[in-house]
Amino acid sequence: MSGYFRFEDFGLLNKLDTINDLSQFFDNTNNMYKEQYNQMVQQIEKIEDEEERAWYFERYEDDLTLYGDSLPRIIKYGILGNLFSHLEYSFFELAQELKTRRNIQESVGHNFDKYLDFLKRNLVEGTIPEEIEEFLDGFRLVRNRIIHSNGYVNRESSSTQHIQVMGIIESNTLLELTPKDQILVLDEYIIKGIEMASDLVKRIHYLIYE
Length: 210
Prior knowledge:
Blueprint: H1 9-45, H2 50-59, H3 61-101, H4 112-122, H5 130-149, H6 160-171, E1 175-177, E2 183-185, H7 187-208
Antiparallel strand pairs: 1-2
C-alpha cells in the first residue's frame, strides 16, 4: 500500500463510502428499534399487578412484535440485499480495473461468480481466503432466498437450492430459522458481512494498484 493518497484511490473511497453508509444506517435504525422495544417492555414490567401486566402485554402485542421482530428483520434483509448488490458491482469494477491495468484480454464475465473467478485467476493466489469465499457463497444463497421468497425456506423441499440454504443455516450460528421457517439473521451476521466486504474490497484494490 502506498504511503500517500493516489488518484486511483478515489474509486476505493467511493466503494467504501457506500459500505460505511450501510453500516451506519444499520446501527442507527437497529439501535432505535431495540431502544423502542426495550422501553415498552420495561414500562409494562413495572406494573406490579400480574393480571394487569399480562393485559398490557397482550394489548401492545402488535407494537412489541413490530419493534422487536418485524422492523429489525426488514432492516437486516434490506441491508443484506443492498450490501451484496454493492459488493457484486464493486467486484465488476475491480475486475474491469484489473483487466485494463494489466491489459488482460479475457472477459470479466457477467455476474458475481464470474467477477470473483476473474479476480482469483488474475491476482495472487490466496487473495480471497477459502473461509471468506465460503462466507460469500452462503451470503449469496441467503440473499437470494430473501429476495425471492422473503426469507422463507421449505424444509421438506428436495431442490438443490433449498438443501444448500438449509446447510448454510445449520452450519452458521449467526443464522436461524423461525418457527414459520423464515430465515432469522442475527446482528452479528450483518456486522460480519459489512466487515468482510470492506476488507475484501480494500485488499483487492491495493493488489491491483500495488
